[in-house]
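Supplementary Note 3. Input sequence used for the single-chain structure prediction.
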Amino acid sequence: MRRTTVTLLFSGLLLAAGLLVATPASACSCVGGTTQEFFDRADAVFTARLVSREEPRGRLTSSADPALHVFAVDTVFKGTAHEQQGVVSPVSGATCGLELSGEGPFVVFATRSADLGGMLFTTLADDQYAAFLCGGTASSTPALEAELAALAGSPSGPTAAPLPGAAGTVPPGPDLLAPRVLGTGALVLALVGLLVLRRRRRGR
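The predicted structure, written as C-alpha cells, is reproduced below.
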C-alpha cells in the first residue's frame, strides 16, 4: 500500500511539473502564410531596428513568460507605432516567441492581442503590442517593403510616419499562464490524494 501511494504521488508531482514547463503552445509549429495574410491579421505593421530585448526579472516560470522588445521604428505601413515602440512576445521560440538575430532592420507584424493558444500569456499596456514567431515578423528586404507599400495602398511609400516619443516600453505584467498551470497541478495532486484515500478505506 505504501509503495502504491508513493508511486501515485510521485506520478502526480511529475505531471504537475510537466504542466508547469510545457504551456499550451509549447510546441510552436508555423504553417506559413502570405504577406497579405500577415498584413490583414496585424493591427500594426512597421519596419524597425531592434534596440533592446528585456527578459522577465528573476527566475523564469515558463517558456511563455513575456519578453519586451523595444524597436526604433522607421516606417509604418498599417496602424500606428511610435519612434520607440515596445512589442511583447513569449520569451522562447518554443512557445511562439520572436526569434530575431541582430538589430535588423525587421518588418514587424504586431497585434493588440496577447492570446497564445486560447490563453492570454500576459497583460498588454494600452500602447503596447504583441508579436509571435508565426505572425510574419522577419528581416526586412526591399521586395518585402515594396509588397507592404502596395498592400497599404501607397506604392511610393508608407502610409504614415512613426508617432513621436516612446510607447509600450514598460515591461509587461507577469506570465498569466503559470498560475493556471500551477492550479492544474494542484488539482492533479488533489485527485491523486482522493484516490489514495479511497484505496485506504477499501483496504480496511
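Confidence is low (pLDDT under 50) at residues 4-26, 177-197. The longest strand covers residues 66-78.
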